[in-house]
Amino acid sequence: MQRDILSQEEIDVLIRHKPGEDQEELSGRIGDPTGIMPYDFTTHGSVAWGKIPSLDIIYNRFIRLFSQSLSSFIARLVDVELYSSDVITFGEFIRTLPLPASLHVFTMRPLHGPAVMALDSPLVFAVVERLFGGTGRSRAKVDGREFTPIEQRVVTRVVVLALQQLQEAWEPVYKLAMQLERSEVNPNLIAVVPARDMVLLATLEIHLGDVNGFLRICIPYALLKPIKSTLDASFNTTWTDVDQKWIHILRREMLRAEVGVSVELGEASIDTERFLALAPGDVIMLERGVNDPLLVRVQYVPKARALPGTVNGYRAIKLTSFIAKETE
Fold this sequence. Notes:
10 strands
């Protein structure tokens, strides 16, 4: 009996197949029996430009904004984290895309040229299922079919939401207008730049319950080249902003931390012989006067001096002075 639906492996072959590909592969095997492939050093010439540190800061801001907005959109808790940030060729990016994938071409005005945002299929189906009241735990069968119109509409809303948050994340560094241009499923139809051109690829891992998926943002080097000096100049300022926020969070958490407070009534020194001879009822004289202030320790560190007393029937102390630094 003939099959009516292609297998996932057959679909992948058809999507990635290009005319003449078999002939080129065959001729390469015949002409080079050792399997050695030539390497063109010019393909990685742009790597000398290196990574742009400001982008990682922008993506960290985007992760915080997007996780909150996506959680509100589907009424479920969503966790987003930066999985990797790489500099690769556009051809390598295309080869790493899973099939099928939800691919979206967008622009970053006033910059000239397109960029690409890609979502994994399991993530798409989980979002759709949870949005319509499901648990998101079922494994949708994607063999032999594309996204339905309902799924495409939901994904488009998620992508537009992501672009809005990405635009807001960029705003402190450089004001850009993100605009979705078109969506595709076949990676061969999103040739926004030549395969040898270098791109900046940020891979974000999204945790949606028991389902994990990746959102990839691919920005060509040539697209950001006009504002590279601005990105470099804003790097130190951006780091300062991040440090201030971290200091505020750290201070807030430290103020909430519980610490132990102890008060020393006094101390005395005795030799071992006298210690071994101690019996119930013996008195040990402390090396402190009755009116001398007591030493207050916080987490075993001397911090203040105080006088003993009582308040409402409870033993208490009254602080008289603070110790600027640790003393003996």
